[in-house]
């Protein structure tokens, strides 16, 4: 018989981090622990990490659901994907905790050369919104660190300032130095999106995430046909749960890329359905973390390595917090590495 409990933990950002939805200074997350009563020394740990204003499970009764899950964990483990379809981050937490438990509770969910420290995962360098000075400071650091792919969040300052920034960046660093990905987080409107994409395209952009808000499939499909910049769907995937719904979305919109965030989409199995459909329609994809602590990031990174996707992944978020869980995850040579088994789980293990 399984038993479970959870612990709330508030992650603190080193610097206020901006998106088109606002400024983040802290982020609550929940660690779920699952163990077998017959062998209580091994404990599987997962992370339930909803994002305010974005996750479909960003709701007032979130913690009440976690209480019920832990109280009735044996019922939920049998069919959590259907019982918790409206709580994808809890599905992700249960899935990863069970995988961890199955492998002895040592945070090695997917044994691989990555988990043994022999191979790294290429990642993009993430540039957060903020004042122009803050953006330039981040860019300078990422360039010095040797990133070959830089992702810039846009929509937080005047568009003309963003264009000026990109123009200066490309004048100093041509396309062969590094690729630029943009993330609009739905900041453009139906009336201005085509002109903005046209002007942005002059700066040799690899792709742009979610240029308009999710929900208008017809408008997004038209953009994907005509945009001079390849379009990647992100928020558009949230809340699309069945295989049939996923295939309908991909086949109707036919984006150039989709971006998969296991915490927002219901875990690895759900994401693997998206990957299967994307491959069927020749749509590219990559994996991105969603501001989890190192517990969730570790699980996502280990799984990502098994997918053998050579594109830079969005897994560089572990350095954002002042109080992240100490872990073996390190960034070097624009890759994410698992360097040893130095885990500090005392915060999680406390009752």
The average pLDDT score comes to 93
Low-confidence stretches: none
CATH superfamily descriptor of the largest domain: Enolase-like C-terminal domain
How far the N terminus sits from the C terminus, by CA atoms, comes to 20 Å
CATH architecture name of the largest domain: Alpha-Beta Barrel
Q: List the total number of helices.
A: 12
Rg: 20 Å
Range of strand content:
15-25%
How do the strands line up in the largest sheet?
A: 5-6-7-8-9-10-11
Listing every helix as H and every strand as E from the N terminus to the C terminus, the arrangement reads EEEHHHEEHEHEHEHEHEHHEHEEH
> Outline, from the CA principal axes?
globular
Structural class: alpha/beta
Indicate the CATH class of the largest domain: Alpha Beta
Largest sheet: 7 strands, parallel
Total number of distinct structural domains: 2
CATH topology of the largest domain: TIM Barrel
Helix content: 25-40%
Number of strands: 13
Mind explaining what this structure looks like?
The chain has 351 residues and is of the alpha/beta class. It has two domains: 2-102, Enolase-like, N-terminal domain (Enolase-like, domain 1), CATH 3.30.390; 121-344, Alpha-Beta Barrel (TIM Barrel), CATH 3.20.20.120. The chain is 36% helix and 23% strand. It contains twelve helices and 13 strands. It has helices spanning 62-71, 73-83, 88-102, 132-144, 159-172, 193-200, 217-226, 243-253, 262-265, 268-280, 294-306, 346-349; strands spanning 2-19, 22-36, 39-48, 121-122, 125-127, 149-153, 179-183, 205-209, 231-233, 257-260, 284-287, 329-332, 335-338. The strands form three sheets. It has a seven-stranded parallel beta sheet with strand order 5-6-7-8-9-10-11. A three-stranded antiparallel beta sheet has the order 1-2-3. It has a three-stranded antiparallel beta sheet with strand order 4-13-12, covered by helices on one side. Helix 8 links the parallel strand 9 (231-233) and strand 10 (257-260). Helix 8 (243-253) packs parallel to helix 10 (268-280).
């Amino acid at each position: 018989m399984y038993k479970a409990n959870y612990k709330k933990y508030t992650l603190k950002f080193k610097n206020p981090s901006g998106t088109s939805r606002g400024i983040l200074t802290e982020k609550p997350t929940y660690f779920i622990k699952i163990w077998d009563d017959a062998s209580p020394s091994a404990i599987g740990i997962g992370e339930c990490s909803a994002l305010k204003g974005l996750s479909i499970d960003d709701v007032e009764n979130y913690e009440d659901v976690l209480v019920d899950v832990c109280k009735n964990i044996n019922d939920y483990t049998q069919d959590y994907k259907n019982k918790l379809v409206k709580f994808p981050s809890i599905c992700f937490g249960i899935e990863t905790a069970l995988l961890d438990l199955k492998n002895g509770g040592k945070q090695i969910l997917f044994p691989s050369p990555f988990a043994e420290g022999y191979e790294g995962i290429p990642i993009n360098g993430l540039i957060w919104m903020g004042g122009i000075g803050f953006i330039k400071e981040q860019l300078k650091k990422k360039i010095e660190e040797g990133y070959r792919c830089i992702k810039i969040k846009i929509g937080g300052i005047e568009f003309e300032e963003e264009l000026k920034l990109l123009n200066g960046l490309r004048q100093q660093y041509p396309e062969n130095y590094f690729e630029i990905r943009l993330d609009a987080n739905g900041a453009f409107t139906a009336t201005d999106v085509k002109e903005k994409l046209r002007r942005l395209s002059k700066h040799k952009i690899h792709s742009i995430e979610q240029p308009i808000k999710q929900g208008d499939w017809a408008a997004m499909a038209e953009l994907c046909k005509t945009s001079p910049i390849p379009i990647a769907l992100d928020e558009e995937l949230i809340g699309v749960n069945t295989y049939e719904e996923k295939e309908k979305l991909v086949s109707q919109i036919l984006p150039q890329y989709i971006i998969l965030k296991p915490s927002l989409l219901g875990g690895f199995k759900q994401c693997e359905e998206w990957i299967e459909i994307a491959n069927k329609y020749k749509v590219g994809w990559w994996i991105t973390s969603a501001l989890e602590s190192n517990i969730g990031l570790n699980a996502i990174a280990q799984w990502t390595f098994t997918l053998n996707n050579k594109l830079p992944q969005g897994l560089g978020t572990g350095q954002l917090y002042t109080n992240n869980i100490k872990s073996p995850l390190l960034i070097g040579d624009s890759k994410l590495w698992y360097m040893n088994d130095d885990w500090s789980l005392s915060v999680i293990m406390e009752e």
